[in-house]
Design brief:
Number of helices: 8
Radius of gyration: 16 Å
Mean pLDDT: 95
Number of strands: 8
CATH topology of the largest domain: Rossmann fold
Strand order of the largest sheet: 5-4-1-6-7-8
Strand content: 5-15%
Order of helices and strands: EEHHHEHEHEHEHEEH
Helix content: 25-40%
């Protein structure tokens, strides 16, 4: 089975996520970095990001973020060029699922809106209360639900959170050259790809 990260791997969510973070910080009277200086928040759990941003009450900041995000920011993103065609090709040979740090209640709306969900067997993400915010725990849960052998699976993502989750679950990992992992150490990945078109061949070499 192929497990896909969502943000930074299948879709570019920067405008919606960073814009909602900035609005949330403004709501709370806190200084807000520029959108370009907030790219690091794309990937990990946002509660952790608000802690790092110095929000005195990260839960209140997260609540403010969610008001803006569900008010429109959720769909202020775009699917990366080449992804729809690659998903269609891969779906003919492999079972696929989403494994994202974004709460699944949001992720499923986004994947449905952009036509990605039709290729997925399952869509895994944390609960709104933070359950399974840790991506390694999320991926372990996904393996438990699907019953698949991790030796026959691959995780595809752009951040070190994805790599660590794959390694914690004895799973192969492919690092994508787009997204927001530019500052992350992804040297331990089983493979690196620069474009979506490279994925089918690399996946075939790893899991058949």
């Amino acid at each position: 089975m192929i497990f896909w990260d969502l943000d930074g791997t299948l879709a570019d969510p920067k405008p919606g996520i960073t814009g909602s973070v900035i609005k949330a910080l403004n709501d709370l009277g806190l200084p807000a970095p520029s959108a370009d200086d907030l790219e690091w928040v794309i990937g990990p759990a946002l509660l952790w990001s608000f802690e790092r941003l110095g929000a005195p009450d990260p839960e209140a900041a997260l609540d403010a973020y969610r008001r803006h995000y569900t008010g429109g920011g959720m769909y202020d993103c775009s699917v990366y060029d080449g992804i729809p065609r690659v998903l269609e090709d891969l779906a003919a040979q492999h079972k696929m699922s989403i494994a994202t740090a974004k709460p699944h209640t949001y992720a499923r709306k986004i994947t449905a809106h952009f036509g990605l969900s039709q290729h997925m067997i399952h869509e895994f993400g944390p609960e709104l209360d933070g359950t399974r915010n840790d991506k390694a725990e999320l991926l372990a849960h996904a393996l438990s639900v699907t019953g698949v052998d991790p030796a026959r699976c691959v995780m595809i993502g752009d951040r070190h959170y994805d790599l660590k989750a794959a390694r914690a679950n004895n799973m192969a990992f492919i690092a994508v050259g787009w997204g927001y992992g530019g500052q992350d150490d992804l040297s331990d990945a089983d493979a690196h790809v620069k474009t979506p078109d490279e994925l089918p061949g690399v996946i075939g070499s790893l899991i058949g």
